[in-house]
Amino acid sequence: MSKPIITRFAPSPTGYLHIGGARTALFNWLFAKHTRGKMLLRIEDTDRERSTEAATAAILDGLKWLGLHWDGEAISQFERAPRHREVAEELVAKGEAYRCYATPAELDEMREKAKAEGRPPRYDGRWRDRDPSEAPAGVKPAIRIKAPRDGETIVQDHVQGEVRFPNKDLDDFIILRSDGNPTYMHAVVVDDHDMGVTHIIRGDDHLTNAARQTIIYRAMGWDVPEMAHIPLIHGADGAKLSKRHGALGVEAYREMGYLPEALCNYLARLGWSHGDDEIMTVEEMVRWFEIGDVNKGAARFDFAKLEAVNGVHIRRMEDEKLVQALVDTLPFLPGGTVLQEKLTLEKRAQWLAAMPGLKERAKTLVELADSSAYLFATRPLTLDEKAAQLLDADARGVLAKAHAALTAVSDWSAARTEAAVRKVAEETGLKLGKVAQPLRAALTGRTTSPGVFDVLDVLGREESLGRIADQID
Question: Among the options 64, 94, 240, 243, which is catalytic?
Fold first, then answer.
């Protein structure tokens, strides 16, 4: 029976969960779910100066919001330092690593010499085969791995293919510093082995690390996990992703009104595809995802495309679920707390009734909340600049006729109110829009809104007639 597949996401808590990290987590999660395996979470918090509790909390919160739930407890790399030291000592005992007493001055000298000779800076292995009895007194040694000096280290990668590294370029790198702290290179290997990780999916900026880490696996006689190094995300202009391109924390995307399902859909399509399918549910992504289908080339982040994908997800979402998504997101949206304070059960029911008309145009939850504002407005409405200009003396005259006609409607509905307004247009010789626009301004305080007859229907007879009367007076 084959081993269950175990992937891991291993962020450093030195900042928020940025969009590239979110995509790496997503690919790990999709592959684990697709293969009925597990995705573990490890917080790589060994950099004590830069790691913060707030950043860890932001990462966990971002993953939960995206729906990328990991298996088991999140593991702290820092807390595992004793285990990392134990393995380093084991490597020394096996003759696969050694204590190095080279001083900082000696290391500087090696670097300068290599530079002068046009070689890359490499440790020269001067303590590799020396007898420990030669160790200088009072000097704390680092521990270095004995890297092979001849041949190549080969990484078979699910995305990059076969990648060969000449061993002469992989010097005897440090696995345990002289202060007893493990290096990242070493800690990662020990953690991945102990956690039973079978597949490492991470950014291709870690590809050279893969060769060095393979050396540690082999020195310990451990199985090397399968690897997949995914290309980085670039901006729409092809440059390295920066904040102006969208290199923000996932919490910023929540504040901009993106649905987590839509963001996952868009991120999955950055470098991976399933035929011509652009819009996918989470279930479809899990069913279709194959790590070998990820492209080698860098993907380009495009806000316009993300907005379009988000708009489709908004329109496809059931109205009740969309209202709930809005309610959950209100604390994070600009002005959302104001709506939250006014959200009674009656208002929520109105919101649900208005949702079919509201969601047709919205590309984000920010737009959706903004276009919903008329539901929460209190009389008399404050008109925006365009609506105020529109409601001149002529428009108020039209409103008076529309008000009289609508007052006569007893069985209030979109169809009945539309019939009444059309009759006003015919009797006054105006186009329907010339009657509908002043109505829209009076009912919503704006010149754009969902269909005016849907607005009348959702607001109800009493509120609609009251808002219109306010503007006539």
Answer: 243
